[in-house]
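re: ur question from yesterday

yeah so i grabbed the chain u mentioned. its 313 aa long if i counted rite. heres the sequnce exactly as i have it in my notes:
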Amino acid sequence: MGDRKPIKLFLLTGFLGAGKTTLLKRIIDRLAGHKIGILMNEFGKISVDGVLLQKSGIDIVEINNGSVFCSCLKGAFIDALISYSELPIDYLFVEASGMADPSSIEHILHSVVGKVKGKEYDYQGAVCVVDALHFLDQADVLLALDRQVATSNMIIVNKVDLIDEQTLTQVEQRITNSNPAAELVRASHCAVDTDFLTRRLKKTEYAVCQETCNTPGNRPVAHVLKAEGRFDKAVFEDFLQALLPWTLRMKGFFRLKEGWYQVDTVGNQSEIKPTDIVRPVSELVVISAKGLPALDEIYQNWDKRFSEKLILQ
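ran it thru and got these structure tokens back, copy pasting raw so excuse formatting
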């Protein structure tokens, strides 16, 4: 390692669709001129956010199809951390899957990576992005979301423009009950002051749980929907609306008659916007916690509207 300073490592967490990638884009702009690395963890089998960042000329390492804190991917996560430690970078940002329970991050860094590579990383802490619009409903049923909040040093309460002051107060009270020591910042579109990059985040008193609640048995399922052809925009939007009650998140790129579109849904909100990104075939990651019934809904709603062949992986 020589005289090189340790790499500053930040963990970015937040449930599906909260705004982690938007925050990461702002961080990249803020650190222009610095050498940075990004380790991106997608829950689905294909990358969507990674494609968007690579379009901006950013080189990243991706670990897909699960959480890097789950036993099924933890080895790949450790290998990636060790590989990054050998590069001449100043910062490393780990964007965790929206379903990740990050309780074991410091254990991994200190007890596993540390034994192999010494003190190559200076862990700055975890920044959690909370979707204020959906947080109260999600926190009641998702243990991983509660762990993300509880283990964070800084919590960005995002999308405050979409809720009233009473709901915002309830959201912040729920967060404070889980993590009274964390720094809270309100934001819309993750427009926050990025001064936290140049100062150490506030320490919290959370008793670290070294074993994550992420296991192959309890996690939601991510299906990849693929199709060839050009699709009617109105019919496709109707298809997405029919699936919203059955899904936690949908995102991807689809070829409609007007051209290629980026798809992003979370909760009961959906966004379809034109993009200049072109893929070999249309692909949509569908994340659901409702098992086979959700799978049946995907097939039935597709067959009602389209004659093109649907491939689900």
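noticed a couple things. Residues 44-48 have pLDDT under 50 and may be disordered. also The chain has two domains: 7-198, 221-312.
anyway ttyl
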